[in-house]
Every structure is written in C-alpha cells, then in structure tokens.
Amino acid sequence: MPTISAFFGIVIQMFWREHGPPHFHALYAEHEALIEIRELRVIRGSLPRRALALVLEWAVEHRQALLEDWDLCSQLKPPKPIPPLE
Fold first, then answer.
1. Is the pTM of the predicted complex or chain greater than 0.85?
2. Spatial distance between the Cα atoms of 69 and 86, rounded to a whole number of angstroms
3. What CA–CA distance (Å, rounded) separates 64 from 30?
4. pLDDT in tens, 49-75
5. Residue 81 lies in a domain
6. Strand pairing of 10-13 and 3-7?
7. Which of 3, 10, 17, 48 has the fewest Cβ atoms within 10 angstroms?
C-alpha cells in the first residue's frame, strides 16, 4: 500500500484495487480512518480529533490530487506523492 503523504506523525496511504467510494487511509499511532474523498467524511475507523482536523485540512487542499491518485490506483498504477500539510 503506497504512502502518498506524511505529516505530523500522520501517514496517508491508498490501496490498489479497492472498491467502494474513492477514499484514502489515514494512520496515526494505533488509529486508522478511511476518509471518503468527495465529501471528506470518515467512512470507517476513527482518529483523535486533532489528527482528524489536520487530515481534513490537508485533504481539502489536495482533493483533486487525491481523486487523480484514486484513478491511478484503480488502473493498478502507482499513485503520485502529494505534498504534506505545512
């Protein structure tokens, strides 16, 4: 599962061949959440409130790049890195 970004201890990853709505995985310590890209909502799992706020802030800035990476992954191509939140 490729890591497409990492910031403040949060790792953002995207799987190849995943089904369902376009989404990414956000990992922070022992927590993991699946975030739907179009509506930026948690569809499974959870993150601490501050970590989730950072992930959502980052995702708003990079929504188009996330959708492009989802398309690449669905074609079994490697996703492109996305700049971290600064």
1. yes
2. 20
3. 28
4. 999 999 999 999 999 999 999 999 989
5. no
6. antiparallel
7. 17
